[in-house]
Amino acid sequence: MTWPLETIWEQVAPSLPGFTVELLPEVDSTNSELMRRARGGRLEPTLLVAERQSAGRGRLGRAWQAEPGASLTFSLGLVLAPTDWSGLSLAVGTAVAGALHPAVQLKWPNDLWVQDRKLGGILIETASTPGGARARFVIIGVGLNVRPRPPNGLSTPPACVQELLPELDAGSSLGLVAPAVADAAKRFEADGFAAFQAAFGQRDALAGRPVRLSDGTAGAAAGVDGHGALVVHTAAGPVAITSSEVSVRPA
Ligand code: BTN
Predict the structure, then answer these.
(1) How far away, in angstroms, is 40 Cα from ligand 1 center?
(2) Ligand 1 atom nearest residue 118's Cα
(3) CB neighbours of 242 closer than 8 A, spacing ≥ 6?
């Protein structure tokens, strides 16, 4: 397998001065590595790709497990100063889905789905910058299943890129997705989630469906608002869900 790192660099560097691309055979987690670097003062825009993660992380403290070659794992770290951070993971998800295939849907707040099965996920973390103020170093971590893999005890086997695009491997998937993520980050900084709201809506896997929140609230998902909050129509009226602690699943 080849990694199109130079092509990605050529596509992204004009809009991200100082941009570097790096491929590691193994690291604990590309997000953790970029976080360590940021704490050491290294804030240049970096795309860090790992062939293997020994301690990949998902949201809410979950693990992200992947065999080398079976999955694509990378993080993009860069300084951003948007006026409002809300909706960034939705914007990134919209960009990843748009770069891949019309059948890729988004499950609020950060999952990529194909026919209600998980294709991938996004883990966004931020660190402060010395300048303080609004600018933060943001680490956008993306994990995508590329090859089919055994369900590993999960009730639903995960989706993978190759069921939609059999010719793609982890390298060519990165070539499609990474420039789109970089582009989305800059567009989000300039225009906020509003610039992505319509595109998210077209891929919203929950829209119109019955959902149940982890606090027991039930209702019908009704899209996202201009800040990326999930709108749920409940018996008591519409509520806007922003907490990442809320788990949402079809009832
Ligand atoms: C989720 O589904 O909860 C998010 C999964 C995010 C996984 C990616 S893989 C690259 C980056 N490094 C990590 O440790 N996690 C993210």
Answers:
(1) 22
(2) 2
(3) 86, 227, 228, 229, 230
